[in-house]
Structures are given as structure tokens and as C-alpha cells.
């Protein structure tokens, strides 16, 4: 099975190409930027370019996108062109070529305003049943692309699995307060409790989705590290997250103190991956327990694949006030 990977110069696209090549599986990487993992340079909006890549392709993993960090630097039309129109071109050419499996990388950002309950309310328990309320053009266009995917299953019987991934980038947070209050490793270790994913696990979920898409037909799955929390913890997580963490992991306090790390004072949401685990057969290997084990042994809590892919950034420009400008 030859797999076409869009966005092969990006974090996830490169990780997928690395994994596929290492396994000796036929794969073709495309991106608008050249890279060691990009076989053909071109735009997903260029229909002729896409059509020329389709012979012998049986599956598409569509990771190429404009991201949230681009909201402050790119006009809305660019998001529509890339995230919606580009996805439409791929879907149409996939149908024309008789592709058997299409996997679309979406984002938990589609949930938008649903992720932050009003003050005084418990943290949100985010499952696939939560209604998205996108709060910026990134979320709007990713959700629109999801709807296109669903339409192509309903009307053209193209098997599509949508994966709403939580954050897996290694770059510092886009929040100045977060960057000034927590070193990056501390913040990202905390996030594995409720809103982060190691890129190794992201790759595994995508490859499982390729295999399962013909049987599934169409569905959406949240792909995030397995949380140790339950719904019974939500009220206290919003008020005093360290108390919940230290109750579940008594060793966390001393391990964090040894590094000068801190837990976030409160959490506003918890991503739930149970459907992806049960229906895709996905078994994520990186979580907060792994963080504590690594801290205890002096090792690295991120995967070797995450280390190999490393940081890429999102812009060619270097910004004075942070890794990228922030917009809503």
C-alpha cells in the first residue's frame, strides 16, 4: 500500500515519513517546502500537481495545514485556500483515483470556546460528543474540512477517519504568561495529564486509522495522551489541580521539586481518548506516568521520534517577543 503524506516537511508529516521509511513501507511525501522527507514540492491547491502524485496511491494521510500560530500572520483567505480548498482537491482526486483510505489530521482546537467553562464551573470533560464552538479562523476551517470529509463519505463512499489531535509540537507555548511562568519541559509534562500527545503516539494513531478506515467508513476521534483523571475529578481540577495530581501520584511533588518544576494551579479541560483506543485499537505509550518515571531515572519523557523530528517553528520570520505572534 503506497501512502501519500501531505505536509511532509512539518512535525507530523516528517514523523510519519520517518516511520514509514524505517518500516520499508511505500510512501510519498509532498509539501510546499523542500525537506529530506519531501519527495515532491508543490501545493495541495494545485490539482495537476496532486493528480500526478496519485498513481499507485492507495491511502492518503492529510496533515498539511495552516496552524493556529499563523492566525496573526496570514489573512483568513489563506486559511480557506489551504485548509478547506486544499482538502477539497485532495478528496476529489482521492475519489477519482479510487483511494481506499483517507485520514485527515484535525485538531482539538475545533472545540474552541467549549474548552473553557465559565468561572466557577468544573473543568470540561471533552469527548467526541462535545459540540465544537470554533473561536478563530483556524478552528473554523479545520471544522469545515471535517465536514467536507464527512460529505465525501456520504456522497462518494470515500472512507475517511478524522483525528482531532491535541498539541504535540515541541515549541514553547504561544502564551507569554506560560512561557514566563514555566520552562517548556515543565509545561509540556503538565500537559500530558490532559491536553498533549507524543508524536510517536500521533503517528501510530494515523497508521491505525489508515488500516481501519475502510471498515469504519467515517468517524472522528480525539487523539491525546491517556488522562489519569475521571469525571469525578473535574470540580477539584478547576479549583486545585495540584491536589488531584498529588493524590493520584504521591511521588510527583518530590520529583517536581528536584527540578524546580510546578504543576498548573488549575485545569480547564480534559481530553478523553477512550473511543480512539477502543475503536482504532490505539495504545498510546506516552503519558504522565511516563513523565514521572523519566524524572526518577533522569531520562527523557519524550519519544526518540519526537527528539529526532525536533523543533521546526511555523514562520520564516524571527519575532522579537516570542516564537510567534499571538492572536485570538
UniProtKB/TrEMBL annotation:
CDD domains assigned: SDR_e
Pfam families, sorted: Epimerase
Domain annotation NAD-dependent epimerase/dehydratase: ranges: 3-212
InterPro entries: Epimerase_deHydtase, Lipid_A_modif_metabolic_enz, NAD(P)-bd_dom_sf
SUPFAM superfamilies referenced in this protein's UniProt entry, alphabetically: NAD(P)-binding Rossmann-fold domains (SSF51735)
Top-rank taxon: Bacteria
PANTHER family: BIFUNCTIONAL POLYMYXIN RESISTANCE PROTEIN ARNA (PTHR43245), BLL0593 PROTEIN (PTHR43245:SF54)
Identification of the protein by name: NAD(P)-dependent oxidoreductase
Organism taxonomic ancestry: Bacteria, Pseudomonadati, Pseudomonadota, Gammaproteobacteria, Lysobacterales
Amino acid at each position: 500500500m503506497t501512502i501519500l503524506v501531505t505536509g511532509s516537511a512539518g512535525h507530523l508529516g516528517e514523523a510519519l515519513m520517518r516511520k514509514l521509511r524505517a518500516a520499508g513501507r511505500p510512501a510519498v511525501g509532498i509539501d510546499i517546502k523542500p525537506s529530506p522527507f519531501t519527495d515532491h514540492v508543490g501545493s495541495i491547491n494545485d490539482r495537476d500537481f496532486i493528480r500526478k502524485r496519485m498513481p499507485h496511491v492507495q491511502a492518503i494521510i492529510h496533515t498539511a495545514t495552516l496552524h493556529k500560530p499563523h492566525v496573526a500572520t496570514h489573512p483568513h483567505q489563506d486559511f480557506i485556500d489551504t485548509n478547506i480548498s486544499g482538502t477539497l482537491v485532495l478528496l476529489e482526486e482521492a475519489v477519482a483515483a479510487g483511494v481506499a483510505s483517507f485520514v485527515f489530521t484535525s485538531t482539538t482546537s475545533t472545540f474552541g470556546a467549549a474548552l473553557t467553562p465559565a468561572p466557577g464551573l468544573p473543568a470540561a470533560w471533552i469527548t467526541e460528543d462535545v459540540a465544537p464552538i470554533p473561536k478563530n479562523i483556524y478552528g473554523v476551517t479545520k471544522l469545515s474540512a471535517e465536514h467536507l470529509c464527512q460529505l465525501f463519505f456520504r456522497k462518494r463512499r470515500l472512507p475517511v477517519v478524522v483525528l482531532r489531535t491535541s498539541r504535540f509540537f515541541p515549541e514553547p507555548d504561544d502564551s507569554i504568561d506560560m512561557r514566563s511562568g514555566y520552562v517548556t519541559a515543565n509545561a509540556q509534562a503538565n500537559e500530558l495529564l490532559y491536553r498533549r500527545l507524543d508524536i510517536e503516539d500521533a503517528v501510530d494513531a494515523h497508521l491505525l486509522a489508515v488500516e481501519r478506515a475502510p471498515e469504519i467508513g467515517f468517524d472522528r476521534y480525539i487523539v491525546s495522551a491517556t488522562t489519569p483523571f475521571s469525571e469525578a475529578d473535574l470540580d477539584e481540577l478547576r479549583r486545585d489541580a495540584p491536589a488531584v495530581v498529588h493524590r493520584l501520584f504521591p511521588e510527583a511533588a518530590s520529583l517536581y521539586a528536584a527540578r524546580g518544576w510546578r504543576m498548573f494551579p488549575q485545569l480547564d479541560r480534559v481530553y478523553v481518548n477512550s473511543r480512539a483506543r477502543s475503536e482504532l485499537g490505539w495504545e498510546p505509550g506516552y503519558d504522565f506516568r511516563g513523565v514521572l518515571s523519566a524524572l526518577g531515572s533522569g531520562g527523557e519523557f519524550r519519544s526518540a521520534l519526537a527528539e529526532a523530528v525536533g523543533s521546526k517553528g511555523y514562520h520564516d520570520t524571527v519575532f522579537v517577543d516570542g516564537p510567534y505572534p499571538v492572536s485570538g
